[in-house]
């Protein structure tokens, strides 16, 4: 007697699968008492995209265990792969379907008398319960595998969304390039009333002090422009805009090391 046992497995690859270029299937199934156990060995190579020249190798071991009914004789049993086919699911899942044939399966010859009929009925009930339990377990495994595939698809979608967001953020120009930089005119009085409260003078001027900390008390300028260097600016364009010479700018700025976003101090003479 020959019996065929189906086996299905979804294998999740770490990369995309465009095409399976070669595949082979072997097995190490053996019989031990009433148990058939071992592995299906799946190997081959594939392309990640249609345009790929290189091929990637894969190798998987798929465990297989099944218990035989004790009423079957296994001494002449032969285990063979009867059929094998596969399909690519969602571009990164390889679904394999294997049919294992058990050839030479024979029922044991039991001789029962009338006194053992009750025992036989109990045995049949136990066998049926085991079959039902096995079927329920197989259904539960199939459900778990389907959930695993769905979760994997969801993770892939989230990763694509994150990648798109990162690309959008990288393509956004930096604020210095997009915001219109307006020169800021900061007026400083040469003399400050000595009775003015020092704390009031220092409020919110830390950044301004750091810009003008290198100025001498003997400077002849009372007006200073602070200009933020933009992407289309040059030292020459700033000099022309504010009608100053390069030598004057060099007195207040490190002209040779200016870069995008730097603040330039531009002195202006007092109008007499």
Describe the protein's topology.
Blueprint: E1 2-12, E2 19-27, E3 30-32, E4 35-47, E5 56-67, E6 72-73, E7 78-89, E8 93-103, E9 106-107, H1 117-171, H2 175-178, E10 184-187, H3 198-202, H4 206-212, E11 221-228, H5 235-242, H6 246-252, E12 263-269
Antiparallel strand pairs: 1-8, 2-4, 3-4, 4-5, 6-9, 7-8, 10-11, 11-12
State which percent range the strand residues make up.
25-35%
Overall average pLDDT: 78
Determine the fraction of residues in helical runs and give it as a percent range. Answer: 25-40%
SS-based structural class? alpha+beta
Count of helical stretches: 6
Give the strand tally.
Answer: 12
* Rg, nearest Å: 41 Å
The low-pLDDT segments are 174-209
Distance between the termini: 118 Å
Number of domains: 3
**Looking at the chains present, what oligomeric state does this protein adopt?**
single chain
The topology string of helices and strands comes to EEEEEEEEEHHEHHEHHE
Based on Cα principal axes, name the global outline.
Answer: rod-shaped
Largest sheet: 4 strands, antiparallel
Structure overview:
The protein folds into three domains: 1-108, no CATH class; 129-172; 179-269, Membrane-bound Lytic Murein Transglycosylase D, Chain A. The chain is built from six helices and twelve strands. 32% of the residues lie in helices and 35% in strands. Strands 2, 3, 4 and 5 form a four-stranded antiparallel beta sheet that branches. A three-stranded antiparallel beta sheet has the order 1-8-7, with no helix packed on it. The termini are far apart. With 272 residues, the chain is an alpha+beta fold. The protein has helices at 117-171, 175-178, 198-202, 206-212, 235-242, 246-252, and strands spanning 2-12, 19-27, 30-32, 35-47, 56-67, 72-73, 78-89, 93-103, 106-107, 184-187, 221-228, 263-269.
């Amino acid at each position: 007697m020959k019996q065929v046992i189906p086996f299905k497995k979804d294998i999740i690859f770490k990369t995309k699968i465009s095409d399976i270029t070669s595949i082979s299937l072997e097995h190490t199934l053996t019989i031990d008492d009433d148990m058939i156990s071992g592995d299906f060995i799946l190997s081959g190579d594939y392309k990640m995209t249609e345009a790929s020249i290189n091929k990637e190798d894969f190798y998987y071991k798929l465990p297989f265990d099944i218990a035989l009914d004790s009423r079957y004789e296994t001494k002449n049993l032969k285990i063979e792969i009867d059929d094998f086919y596969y399909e690519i699911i969602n571009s990164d899942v390889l679904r394999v379907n294997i049919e294992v044939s058990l050839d030479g399966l024979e029922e044991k010859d039991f001789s029962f008398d009338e006194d053992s009929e009750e025992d036989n009925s109990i045995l049949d009930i136990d066998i049926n319960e085991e079959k039902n339990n096995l079927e329920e377990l197989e259904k539960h495994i199939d459900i778990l595998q389907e959930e695993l595939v769905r979760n994997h698809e969801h993770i892939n979608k989230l990763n694509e969304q994150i990648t798109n967001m990162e690309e959008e953020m990288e393509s956004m120009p930096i604020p210095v390039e997009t915001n219109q930089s307006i020169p800021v005119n900061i007026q400083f009085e040469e003399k400050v009333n000595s009775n003015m409260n020092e704390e009031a003078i220092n409020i919110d001027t830390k950044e301004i002090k750091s810009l003008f900390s290198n100025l001498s008390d003997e400077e002849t300028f009372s007006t200073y422009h602070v200009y933020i260097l933009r992407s289309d600016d040059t030292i020459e364009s700033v000099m022309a805009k504010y009608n100053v010479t390069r030598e004057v700018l060099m007195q207040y700025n490190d002209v040779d090391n200016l870069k995008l976003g730097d603040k330039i101090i531009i002195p202006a003479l007092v109008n007499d």
